[in-house]
Amino acid sequence: MTAASPGPPATFDELVVALQERQARLTPAQRLLAGRVLSDPEAVAFMTVSELASTVGVNESTVVRFATGLGLDGYPALTRLCRERLRREAQLLRRFGSLRQAAAEEHEPLGSSAGFDPLEQATAFDQANIARTLARVDRTTWSDAVAALADAPRVHVLGLRKCHAVGYLLGYLLGMIRDDVETLGVGPGTLVDELRRVRAGDCFVAVSIHRYSRATVRAFEWAAGEGATTIALTDNPASPLVRPGGHTFYVDTTGVSVMRSLTAFTSLVQALANEVAVARATGTQAALAAEERLLDAFAIYAEGP
Q: How many structural domains compose the chain?
């Protein structure tokens, strides 16, 4: 692995870029290490060389060569970049904590306690997740994905397990503005049958984050092999959903505890659906008008007070 950039990565974000640029040239062992670093930097930050080697299933010397191949001064420099990411998240939380404390001192009686509660932690993480996710959207990739979602003969959307809600939301929103949108994997054991309807020229969207659903990955590969345009909503460049020629969007999912946050996914999905609605223009108006007639005819919503 040879360096492709002028100097070694100085931040974790630069490390992500460096690994993404080198992905095609990495050996199988190096891909395993890159995947671990990108998907779980919090753990890598405090692993020894032997611990990371054992976790991934490679030799310790492979770990050291992986770090130096990135231009870093050995394995400790790699862990420092992972710890830098943790410090950045901690600083974000401290900033929100300071804001809350200032507000509490202004509005609460002297002597009352103002703790930093989980709701504020969730707010801090989710605002940062949304900002980072939308800031790194490549505009050309975005335009190509919108065109595929607007113009493809059929759109297939798949998100399983923790990503099911995201996939369902995108399928629901797209289904309001165009026909031939299918949300896959809703019924038990139906995915293979549903994949029979994937054709060349269709658009196939897959949603998955670490740990990646095997069924989602295999279905995504199948759709690509059939000639469908692929769009991946995932969490890092080491994701098995990242494919040459596909459209990929990386979503930050840092959460308060062990649970990954899906808030940035929701923002990205809604933005995609809105853009597709604008792109389809007249077709969107006709679809929404038909939807309103059906809602009225079946009295779907309760009357307000």
A: 2
